[in-house]
């Protein structure tokens, strides 16, 4: 007897998604693009066109999911609010992340951090660029942008990973909750210290913007949204940096294109976000019964919006599993869409495409992947490299 689509969805395990979700997504797109997957306790939405549609209708597909894992870990952030409540908090944080502020204030900060990190390992001739560069670069940059000047970058990385693991804890593992809750408490303390300092000495930071906005956020709103920024604002640039470096080192012909024309680093960033979406899935919940992708969804249905699948939809992207910076056509949805389009996307693009990647390739002659240790990937809610061993000629 042939296996039905429902039977197949019932066999999908969280470990399968962690190891390599793309074959699973490919089959779901082809046979049941909005499928109930018991292991995730939600309908997975896997086609590009369905995701674009739902983001255009937040009144039906709400970000305010009941019993959200993100709310459990981080509190009620702007990402889990709709309408005026979401816009108010977004508007308060936005001034620190405008393109002009990034260019004039944050880009020099990012450059200084990149050079200091490379100075620290240059003479070794080898490194794990995930642990030694992409992670610390993202953490130190984010600490500056947020205004968490007294926080150790390693602590920021630990907090971010612990909270992101909690946001993706669909297996309900108790130890994951414990780490996430401890990280959230530590962030609250750090934010309170920053608020005390910034109240009388405002600066360009996000916490300062939220504190001194025309409609200032409450301390709890600042704590919750800072947790959100620590999650996406660290993991996204870290993972995009590592993905892009791995891809360029594995595709020398495309690396040559970029080294010949540095303006193409922007193409590298966009293709990296498409190829391995750092935020692979986020939740939505229906406010009424609705049909999506051929599936009738009841009111209150929990959805998993699978950006990692939409960005490899073969009806939109030719040869979607290949990394190709010369790709033409439709834009990816790796930064989300609609009212909740990633607020930090301009900062991430500048940090990775203008600073992190060009500086590293310029300063490490003969940079190449390790011949003895492979690059490993993991995750589906959040996906990216787990290591990036390389060598060069000091």
- Summing up helix and strand content along with how strands pair, one would put the structural category as alpha+beta
Using the CA coordinates, give the radius of gyration.
Answer: 21 Å
CATH class annotation: Mainly Alpha
Distance separating the two termini: 61 Å
Q: Which geometry do the CA atoms define?
A: globular
Main sheet: strands, sense, barrel? 5 strands, mixed
How many strands appear in the DSSP assignment? 12
- Series of H and E elements: HHHEEHEHHHEHHHHHHHEEEEHHEEEE
Helix content: 40-55%
For the largest beta sheet, what order do the strands appear in spatially? Answer: 1-2-8-5-3
**CATH fold annotation:** Cytochrome p450
Low-confidence stretches: none
In percent terms, what proportion of residues is strand?
Answer: 5-15%
Q: Could you state the CATH homologous superfamily?
A: Cytochrome P450
Total helices: the number is 16
Average pLDDT, rounded to a whole number, is 92
Assigned CATH architecture: Orthogonal Bundle
Explain what the structure shows:
The chain has helices at 5-11, 14-19, 22-31, 48-55, 69-74, 83-93, 99-121, 129-146, 153-167, 174-198, 206-211, 219-250, 252-260, 265-275, 307-310, 345-363, and strands at residues 34-37, 42-45, 61-62, 126-128, 282-286, 290-292, 295-297, 302-305, 368-369, 377-378, 384-385, 389-391. The chain is an alpha+beta fold and 394 residues long. Helix 8 runs antiparallel to helix 12 and helix 14 packs across helix 16 (345-363). The model has no long low-confidence stretch (mean pLDDT 92).
């Amino acid at each position: 007897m042939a296996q039905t689509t429902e039977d197949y969805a019932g066999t999908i395990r969280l470990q399968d998604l962690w190891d390599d979700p793309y074959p699973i997504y490919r089959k779901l797109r082809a046979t049941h693009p909005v499928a109930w997957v018991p292991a995730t306790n939600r309908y997975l939405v896997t086609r590009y066109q369905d995701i674009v549609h739902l983001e255009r209708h937040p009144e039906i597909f709400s970000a305010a999911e009941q019993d959200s894992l993100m709310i459990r870990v981080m509190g009620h952030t702007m990402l889990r609010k709709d309408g005026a409540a979401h816009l108010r908090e977004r508007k308060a944080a936005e001034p620190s992340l405008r393109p002009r502020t990034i260019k004039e204030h944050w880009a020099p900060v990012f450059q200084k951090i990149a050079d200091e990190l490379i100075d620290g390992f240059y003479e070794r001739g080898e490194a794990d660029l995930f642990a030694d560069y992409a992670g610390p670069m993202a953490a130190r940059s984010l600490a500056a942008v947020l205004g968490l000047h007294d926080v150790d970058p390693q602590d920021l990385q630990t907090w971010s990973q612990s909270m992101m693991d909690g946001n993706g804890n669909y297996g309900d593992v108790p130890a994951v909750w414990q780490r996430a809750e401890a990280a959230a408490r530590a962030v609250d303390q750090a934010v309170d210290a920053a608020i005390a300092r910034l109240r009388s000495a405002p600066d360009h930071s996000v916490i300062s913007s939220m504190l001194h906005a025309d409609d200032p956020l409450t301390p709890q709103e600042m704590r919750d949204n800072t947790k959100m920024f620590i999650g996406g604002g660290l993991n996204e640039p870290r993972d995009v940096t590592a993905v892009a470096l791995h891809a360029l080192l594995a595709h020398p012909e495309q690396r040559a294109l970029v080294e010949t024309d540095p303006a193409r680093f922007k193409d590298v960033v966009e293709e990296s976000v498409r190829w391995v979406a750092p935020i692979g899935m986020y939740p939505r919940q229906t406010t009424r019964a609705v049909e999506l992708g051929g599936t009738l969804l009841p009111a209150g249905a929990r959805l998993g919006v699978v950006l990692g699948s939409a960005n490899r939809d073969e009806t939109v992207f030719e040869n979607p599993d290949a990394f190709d910076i010369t790709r033409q056509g439709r834009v990816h949805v790796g930064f989300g869409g609609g009212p909740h389009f990633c607020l930090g996307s301009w900062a991430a693009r500048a940090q990775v495409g203008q600073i992190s990647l060009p500086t590293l390739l310029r300063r490490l002659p003969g940079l190449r992947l390790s011949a003895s240790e492979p690059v490993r990937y993991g995750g589906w809610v959040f996906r990216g490299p787990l290591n990036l061993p390389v060598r060069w000629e000091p």
